[in-house]
Amino acid sequence: MAAAKSAAALPLRLPRAERGTQDKNTRGAGDADTPGLNSDLIAGPTQPRNPISRTRIETVVSRSVAGVGVIFSLQALPIMLAQVPLRLPVMVVAMPLALAVGIGAVVIAAITKVGVRVTTGTVAVVYLAALLGWPFLMVDPSAVLDGKPWLWYMCTVATSCAAVSFPLVWAATYTFLAPIVYGIVRTQPSGGGADALLASLDAVYATILGQVILIIIFMLRQTAAAVDAAQTNALHQYATAVRQHATEVERVQVDSIVHDSVLATFLAAAAAGSPKAAQLASGMASDALTRLNDAAMVPAGDDSLVPFNALTVRIREAADKLAAPFTFVECEIDTLSLPVHASDALFAASVQAMVNSVQHAGDGIVEPGRTLTMRANGQGGCTIEIADTGVGFDPEQVPSERLGLRLSIQERVASAGGSVRICSEIGRGTTITIDWPPEGEVAPA
User: Fold this and answer.
1) 418 in a domain, yes or no?
2) pLDDT at 93
3) Which of 90, 154, 190, 431 is the most exposed place for a label (fewest CB within 10 A)?
4) d(C-alpha 166, C-alpha 162), whole Å
5) CA distance 337 to 256
6) What's the pLDDT tens digit per position in 138-152?
7) Are residues 76 and 208 in the same domain?
8) Residues 324, 357: Cα–Cα separation, whole Å
9) What is the mean pLDDT of residues 420-431?
10) Domain-located, residue 445
């Protein structure tokens, strides 16, 4: 029961030697956007970003479509200007303006990663409406257009937007429908009066191109989704294995105590044939109970203490090695000492939080302010606060594969009996508060 209680309270508790191995593995599998940290937690080699994920694929696809849209729009511009005298005055401005605004919105959405599906879907719908209305918006519908309608050069853009925005079935339908409508328009005088064969070839070409783009986008999405699922499953299995390993380590520790102390006490008591032997057995029993209680309450491994002031010196020295300066606010706590495992966890988590701030808080234009506060708390322990006035982020939107916050900071501190609070908003900076022990608990004497 002692082992079960200890494992439930500290799911990642390991002996000091095992913790060293785990820390190396944790840093090696570090946050996708945070460099892995070596023994000094600063100058180690960096981990490459995961090259494939659904979010990145969507970003690449949307920006590619936006770039193609701009290029094809510029290609269609001279032909559109040449065909202006043949169009009704209201449509000389309205149709090109609607498509231009749509393409511009797609570019902005692709850059900001907001509203991509809405803007691309709008462009696809506006283009199809423009095709349907083309024959009816000429000054002289019976006059034969010299060449192709300028909308031809936007057909690939429209089918690409449909592939990005619509579900697969609707996108596939669109990549057939839009070229067919264009082929029909092409046979009309307003579309150049092409013969059926030439119009069909144009329609087939546009259909094949649209289908190829749709297939590429669909396959990229499917592959990225499979990779994301595999990565999430691997992370889950890794976390489960770490917890099982911690439980096994504590089971072995308690089993050794039971074998070396409890069983020996029973044997001594059974063999006691004199008052002196009975007194010895009683002392052995008391010592066994103490060891079992310590196994349930104190993490395995080195139980020596480290002064809090020594921890603050380590953290300041690490901060001084970073590329951006921190403003220090600290108070000495001469009476506070932490277990070695807690000191190591708080130091590693603090450095990871500072590294994250240096790497991600700035926008490349204005360098944010950063503060590092180390003080006593109401639980008789300590609080370490890393804050910046940078770009911030939404903690709820952090992908599960990003380990910097979850493993390197939150679970590392939790394994030492502490807690972490993250307060951040986009555009309003980030504050990471590390408490040891958590609120409501009292620091061990």
Assistant:
1) yes
2) 80
3) 90
4) 5
5) 29
6) 888 788 888 889 889
7) yes
8) 9
9) 90
10) no
